[in-house]
Amino acid sequence: MKTNYALVTGASQGFGKALALEFANRKINLLLIALPNSGLPELSNFIKQIYGVDVRYLEVDLSIGQSSYFIADYVNSSTLQIKYLVNNAGVLSKGLFEDLKDEFILKQIAVNVTAPTLLTKVLLENLKASGAASILNISSMASFFFLPKKQVYGATKAYLTSFSKSLRKELKKDNISVTTICPGGLNTTTRLCYQNRLVSWIAQKTVLNPEDAAKIAIKAMIKTEIVVVPGFVNKCLMALDKLLPGFIKDRLANREINKFAIPKLEETNHQ
Ligand SMILES: NC(=O)c1ccc[n+]([C@@H]2O[C@H](COP(=O)([O-])OP(=O)(O)OC[C@H]3O[C@@H](n4cnc5c(N)ncnc54)[C@H](OP(=O)(O)O)[C@@H]3O)[C@@H](O)[C@H]2O)c1
């Protein structure tokens, strides 16, 4: 007899952790994925004790293609039925293209593009077996805009948004819905919280707490929505984007993107 689980990648911290807690709050069992030594055993015990749900975890590096097969093997050789697949793990960045290290770019593409694609593929049969499953892909508002210093990151998220929208059409026949969430800023790390305070008043209003965004995301996934931009101001900006001339949008985007001057931003994923 199989039991329903939500699989959340990048669940050790930030948005992924907030999503995991929101699933647990809804009494849904969890399979958490993150890198080794990122605190998954402690987080799993905490969630089990507080929420009374079953929590499993796997410590794997999603920048390695083999990890997706490892996860699928684990799932298929167990009694886990994945009903909710959340592709959240992501490598963020902000920096000039010429300054980004080649290895960093490849890792960003591997985690943000290859891993969600492959993981979805290898878990597809398991998802189908649930009768009615949902995939939640965590993209970004950056997937809609062409931002300097976010060229590779924005492109990886544009891929994810496009992939999700097409896949949704294909998987309808299997009763699997695909929802994409495109947050603006999220206060997920100390660095980001600080960085998000340096931007203009209006840009600060685009930033959400991960807990609030997680509630919105899971609700949208359950309602099988297509693409969700969380937050009132972000929704207004998306509407405004259709109306404003390109040169004004470029000027506004450049002004915000050049505001941050925190050292070593380019090489960390905690941005
Ligand atoms: N923060 C924002 O402003 C923002 C805005 C829009 C969209 N998003 C998207 O939201 C998602 C989560 O972002 P976040 O801010 O919560 O990021 P975060 O705090 O840096 O957390 C990223 C998560 O992904 C995991 N991860 C990174 N590389 C991995 C790898 N190679 N293998 C396995 N796990 C890996 C991390 O695990 P470890 O703890 O083990 O490193 C961590 O759990 C991302 O997809 C991001 O693009 C974020």
Which CATH architecture is right? 3-Layer(aba) Sandwich
Strand content: 15-25%
Structural class: alpha/beta
What count of structural domains? 1
Strand order of the largest sheet: 3-2-1-4-5-6-9
Any idea what the shape is? globular
Give me the CATH superfamily: NAD(P)-binding Rossmann-like Domain
Q: pLDDT average, as an integer?
A: 92
Per DSSP, the total helix count is 10
* Level-1 CATH class name: Alpha Beta
Q: What is the gyration radius calculated from CA atoms?
A: 18 Å
Low-confidence stretches: 262-271
Number of strands: 9
Protein described:
With 271 residues, the protein is α/β, with parallel strands linked by helices. It starts with a strand and ends in a 14-residue tail after the last helix. The chain contains ten helices and nine strands. The chain has helices spanning 14-25, 40-51, 66-76, 102-128, 151-171, 190-198, 201-204, 210-222, 232-243, 246-257, and strands at 3-9, 29-34, 55-59, 80-87, 133-138, 176-181, 185-186, 207-208, 227-228. The model is unreliable at 262-271 (pLDDT under 50). It has a single domain (3-257), classed as Rossmann fold, CATH 3.40.50. The chain is globular, with a radius of gyration of 18 Å. Helix 3 runs parallel beside helix 4 (102-128) and helix 4 (102-128) runs parallel beside helix 5. The strands form two sheets. Strands 3-2-1-4-5-6-9 form a seven-stranded parallel β-sheet, with helices on both faces. A two-stranded parallel ribbon has the order 7-8. Bound molecules: NADP nicotinamide-adenine-dinucleotide phosphate.
